[in-house]
Structures are given as C-alpha cells and as structure tokens.
UniProtKB/TrEMBL annotation:
Species of provenance: Novacetimonas pomaceti
Domain of life: Bacteria
Annotated InterPro entries: SAM-dependent_MTases_sf, SAM_O-MeTrfase
Name of a matching Pfam family: Methyltransf_24
Keywords: Methyltransferase, S-adenosyl-L-methionine, Transferase
Protein name: Methyltransferase
One GO molecular-function entry: methyltransferase activity
Entry annotated with the keyword ATP-binding: no
PROSITE patterns attached to this UniProt entry: SAM_OMT_I (PS51682)
C-alpha cells in the first residue's frame, strides 16, 4: 500500500460493506434465543457439552465483534505485519473482513477461519467476496476441534478467538506450538471462558495478558 492510498479498511468496497453488515447485525433477532430464560442462556453459552445446541439456536444472530474490536484487529495485524492469521468463529464474516483487509495492506498472506453453521458460511463467503478479499481467506466448515488440527501455517502471527467460549482453551492448545514469539491472541467475550483466562493470565504460562474494552482479552506469546 502506497502512503497516499487510503487503507483497505477505510475504502470501498470494504468500508461501505462493513457499515451495512454492522447495521444488519444490530437489526438481527432470534426468538429461539430471546425466549430462553436468562439462567438457561448463561448455562448454554458457558457449557462445554451444549455449545452446539446454543449456536444452532443462535444461527440467525451475527454475534460480531464490536466496531472497536474490529479496528483493534486491523491495527494489530498491520502493526505486526501479520501474514498468517487464524480465526475461530467466522459467523457472518465481519471480523474476517477486518483481518483480511489488514493482510491486503500488508502485501498478502492467509487467513484461516472456521465455522460450523452452514448458513453462516454461505453468507460469510459472499461478504468476503464482496469485499474483494476472497483470495486471502480460507473458510473451513466444521467443528474447529477438527478443522484446526491440520494444514496450518508453520508460524501463526495473530489469532482471534470468537467462537464457542468454553472451547477457547482447547483451540489455544491446538495452535500454541505454532504461535511465534510476539504472536497476539484476541479473545472476544473471554469472561465466558474462565479456564482460558486462568491459562493466559497464569504466571509462567508464557503469555502477557490483560483485558481490553471490557470483554476482550488481549494476550501476547512470549519468546
């Protein structure tokens, strides 16, 4: 990207696309989720056994990162000159577009993202293509506990955890050996995964970690 060229994130087609997608996300509803009792909703979100049930009920909800977290993802990837990014939880592709836009401005790379809800994958692919970023993104369909076990880059620069919250420790374990020193892990809604927070905040675990913007945990892999 030349200095006089606007960042991909701030330019068409990406900027107007994201404005539209955030508006659609804000307007989305799910009677299946809204009709749940609060204690049942809390249980499903934090359950290692019933996460598939919850995300099936929530298939019409976008569950996106916030605009601020999307900007953070872009900024981190740009500052690190990231080339290899892994995302757990594609949903409708809002965070995917932010990350892929950073790869474009970094000169290229690969974003591997994974999602098990087929209807969301269809929409996410459409959005990535509309953004003009499809050449940078590989969307894997299925449970991340399977899709992220093979064919990963030798080194990973940046990870976004934004899928089933109880699986955050498991996904970290799958990727950990490939995280380069200085790799960043952004965990959205990390307060729903106390085991993950205990892991990355534990002294001697190999990370520096702190909360960002309330419900996002930002961690760096030490050398």
């Amino acid at each position: 990207m030349t200095p006089d060229k606007a960042p991909t994130l701030m330019s068409a087609p990406v900027a107007p696309l994201l404005d539209r997608l955030f508006a659609e996300a804000d307007a989305a509803t799910s009677p299946a989720v809204s009709n749940l009792a609060p204690e049942e909703l809390q249980r499903l979100v934090g359950s290692r056994d019933d996460y598939v049930q919850f995300y099936g009920l929530a298939k019409d909800l976008w569950l996106p990162v916030s605009r601020e977290t999307g900007m953070l993802l872009y900024m981190l990837a740009r500052a690190m000159r990231a080339q290899h990014i892994v995302e757990f939880g594609t949903s409708f592709g809002i965070s995917t577009v932010h990350l892929a836009a950073a790869l474009r401005d970094n000169g290229g790379g690969k974003l591997i993202t994974t999602e098990f809800e087929p209807s969301k994958i269809v929409r996410a692919r459409q959005h990535v293509e509309e953004a003009g970023l499809a050449d940078l993104v590989e969307i894997r369909e299925g449970d991340a506990l399977s899709t992220l076990t093979a064919n990963l880059p030798e080194t990973i620069d940046l990870v976004l955890l934004d899928g089933a919250k109880p699986l955050y420790p498991d996904i970290l374990a799958l990727l950990e050996s490939r995280l380069r020193p200085g790799a960043m892990i952004v965990a959205d809604n990390a307060d729903y995964s106390p085991d993950y927070l205990a892991r990355v905040r534990s002294p001697g675990a190999g990370y520096l970690s702190l909360p960002f913007d309330g419900d996002v945990e930002l961690s760096v892999k030490l050398g």
